[in-house]
Amino acid sequence: MADDPTPHPEAVARGGAVETLPDTLAMGPARLARYRPALLEPLLEAALESYPEIHRWLRWAQAPLERETFAEFIRGREADFDRGVAWHYAMVGRDERVVGGAGIFPKEDPHALEIGYWVRTSCTRQGLATAATRALTSAAFTYLSSIERVHVLMDQANVASAGVPRALGFTVSGPTPRPRLTPGHSGLYLTWTMTRDEWGDVTKREPA
Ligand SMILES: CC(C)(COP(=O)(O)OP(=O)(O)OC[C@H]1O[C@@H](n2cnc3c(N)ncnc32)[C@H](O)[C@@H]1OP(=O)(O)O)[C@@H](O)C(=O)NCCC(=O)NCCS
Question: What's phi and psi for 33, nearest 5 deg?
Fold first, then answer.
């Protein structure tokens, strides 16, 4: 799929081979589908509907969402996926409507990844962010052998977001000071962590 055969320096690699995640992951009532040009319009529509909420919390939604800038943003994330650097997906409902987005991307620690998510405003409180985070955590530990920890970070004031890793049994640490980058930020961050060993225990207790 990637035109460039040279692995990106940040790619998750083992024995010279780049490890990657599947293009599609099952997640409860929806699926995660990697960004593709055909998803641009439905993603933009979902993001525009959700602008007040995502603007409050997400760095990429600070300027008004213009089609060309958004297309470039999606293309960048497709390229990251091709290179095995970061994996961004649309949440697609059974009726093929885009109901949000979620991704998993590198941290400074080469053995850790971070998950991010947003859910279309009209589809919140249906367990979608939790289902996406469960699917991405399982995928990271299944397909990426060097990953030992998965994190979810959020500002302490983002009470809705904190409910997601809490529901999945992640352990919280913090708060620690971080720059305020969006209107909702208090400047204090929480870091939620799941280790490979703990996830094994959780999945034994809660079969998918
Ligand atoms: C945060 C967000 C992703 C939650 O998505 P969601 O699909 O509604 O979350 P879930 O339905 O999986 O909720 C899981 C738990 O989180 C908590 N939660 C979710 N929304 C909440 C809210 N508005 N108020 C309080 N708790 C909330 C609850 O404990 C919930 O469990 P429950 O519904 O059984 O009580 C969504 O509100 C959103 O997109 N917000 C804007 C973008 C954002 O903040 N992204 C995260 C940045 S760190």
Answer: -125, 125
The segments of the chain whose pLDDT lies below 50 read 1-5, 7, 14, 207-208
Q: Of ligand 1's atoms, which has the minimum distance to the CA of residue 53? A: 41
- Asked whether 167 lines ligand 1 (CB < 6 A), one says yes
- Closest residue by Cα to atom 30, ligand 1, is 163
Given this structure, which CATH class describes domain 22-205? alpha beta
CA angle 28, 103, 120 (to 5 degrees): 60
Q: Ligand 1 pocket test: pick from 53, 119, 178 the residue with the most ligand atoms within 8 Å of its Cβ.
A: 119
What is the whole-number distance in angstroms between the Cα of residue 118 and the centre of ligand 1?
9
CB 162 within 8 A of CB 186: no
User: pTM higher than 0.90 for the full model?
Assistant: yes
Q: What is the pLDDT of residues 11-22, one digit of tens each?
A: 665 456 679 999
CA of 168 to the centre of ligand 1 (A): 13
Question: Is residue 170 a contact partner of residue 140, using CB atoms and an 8 Å limit?
Answer: no
Distance CA 67, CA 74 (A): 10
Write down the domain spans for the chain: 22-205
Which amino acid makes up residue 3?
D
Q: What distance in angstroms lies between residue 129's CA and the mean position of ligand 1's atoms?
A: 7
Task: Please report, to the nearest 10 degrees, the dihedral formed by the alpha carbons of residues 124, 130, 136, 139 taken in order.
Answer: -140
